[in-house]
From TrEMBL:
<dbReference type="GO" id="GO:0046081">
    <property type="term" value="P:dUTP catabolic process"/>
</dbReference>
<feature type="domain" description="NTP pyrophosphohydrolase MazG-like">
    <location>
        <begin position="43"/>
        <end position="111"/>
    </location>
</feature>
<dbReference type="GO" id="GO:0046047">
    <property type="term" value="P:TTP catabolic process"/>
</dbReference>
<dbReference type="InterPro" id="IPR004518">
    <property type="entry name" value="MazG-like_dom"/>
</dbReference>
<dbReference type="GO" id="GO:0046076">
    <property type="term" value="P:dTTP catabolic process"/>
</dbReference>
<feature type="domain" description="NTP pyrophosphohydrolase MazG-like">
    <location>
        <begin position="178"/>
        <end position="241"/>
    </location>
</feature>
<dbReference type="GO" id="GO:0046052">
    <property type="term" value="P:UTP catabolic process"/>
</dbReference>
<dbReference type="GO" id="GO:0047429">
    <property type="term" value="F:nucleoside triphosphate diphosphatase activity"/>
</dbReference>
<dbReference type="InterPro" id="IPR048011">
    <property type="entry name" value="NTP-PPase_MazG-like_C"/>
</dbReference>
<dbReference type="GO" id="GO:0046061">
    <property type="term" value="P:dATP catabolic process"/>
</dbReference>
<dbReference type="GO" id="GO:0006203">
    <property type="term" value="P:dGTP catabolic process"/>
</dbReference>
<dbReference type="InterPro" id="IPR048015">
    <property type="entry name" value="NTP-PPase_MazG-like_N"/>
</dbReference>
<protein>
    <submittedName>
        <fullName>MazG family protein</fullName>
    </submittedName>
</protein>
<dbReference type="Pfam" id="PF03819">
    <property type="entry name" value="MazG"/>
</dbReference>
<dbReference type="InterPro" id="IPR011551">
    <property type="entry name" value="NTP_PyrPHydrolase_MazG"/>
</dbReference>
Length: 279
């Protein structure tokens, strides 16, 4: 048993110090087996998961939920710092000092009088110039995608590839061209599936081309594809949960023999939800 008396901190440095100490205690030999067994990949994934939970709270305008999810993100960030301290790869202060130095270096228009930037476009130009010319973080000339992390999930990687292509001028002139490309890829997928002897490899390839084109459309419209899909998942899951509740209330089994009844429930829920949020 670890004796620890919690007292709410009254300032940010004290709060962060206490969080760092508590996580250290949890990961100590006398602490929690679950916390000690955490790995960096697993904790990094938790940061992504908690970030999406924060986005949900942000969209729902729940301040208490936003506060809680930011706290959960911090738990995982500080846990990662502890892991690196425990294996002696680097102390937490090194990571924080490095990012502070980077912020100052990449904002010469704020911290020096040698560079000026009057809008966000000019700021991005200054940022990228420092990143590439001073820090040397340039993409390889023969591979413009070399700076895109290979561990990104496919959806996010497609988005980053398209952003890089836009950066060098490879971009559609208007949204109609992007829409036409989506329709073109859909037609090709339909053709691949409607042959007398469908080729699964070709169908998969055409399906991938269609997915890529849809991601590009979402990007062109100014949205993040992963967050857009996350919102669609939440909406569909919410509606089907409502269908399931109505099915239980009306003694309708959720199985393929009752698809027509479930379709009716789905339309009922859809109409009801559209009164609050347009579909």
């Amino acid at each position: 048993m670890i004796e620890y008396v919690y007292h709410p901190a009254e300032d940010f440095p004290s709060a962060m110090e206490q969080l760092h100490r508590i996580i250290g205690l949890l990961r100590s030999p006398e602490g929690c087996p679950w916390d000690r067994e955490l790995t960096a990949p697993r904790t990094a994934q938790s940061i992504i998961d908690e970030t999406y939970e924060y986005i949900d709270e942000l969209k729902n305008h729940r301040i208490s939920g936003q506060r809680e999810e930011i706290g959960d993100i911090l738990i995982n960030v500080v846990t990662l710092l502890h892991m690196h301290e425990d294996n002696a790869s680097f102390p937490a202060t090194d990571a924080i000092n490095e990012v502070c130095e980077k912020l100052i270096r990449r904002h010469p228009h704020v911290f020096t009088d040698t560079v000026s930037a009057h809008d966000s476009t000019e700021v991005l130009s200054v940022w990228n110039n420092v990143k590439e010319e001073i820090e040397g973080k340039k993409a390889e000339k023969e591979n413009p995608f070399s700076r895109i992390p290979k561990s990104l999930p496919p959806l996010e990687r497609a988005y980053e590839i398209q952003k890089k292509m836009k950066k060098v001028g490879f971009e559609w002139p208007d949204v109609q061209g992007v829409l036409n490309k989506v329709c073109e890829e859909l037609d090709e997928l339909v053709d691949a599936t409607n042959t007398l002897e469908p080729n699964q490899e070709r169908i998969e390839e055409e399906a991938g081309d269609l997915l890529f084109a849809v991601v590009n459309l979402v990007r062109f419209l100014g949205f993040n594809p992963a967050q857009t899909l996350h919102g669609a998942n939440q909406k569909l899951a919410g509606r089907f949960e409502a269908v399931a509740r109505l099915a239980v209330e009306r003694n309708i089994p959720l199985d393929k023999e009752h698809m027509s009844e479930m379709d009716e429930l789905w339309e009922e829920v859809k109409v009801s939800s559209s009164h609050h949020h347009p579909s």
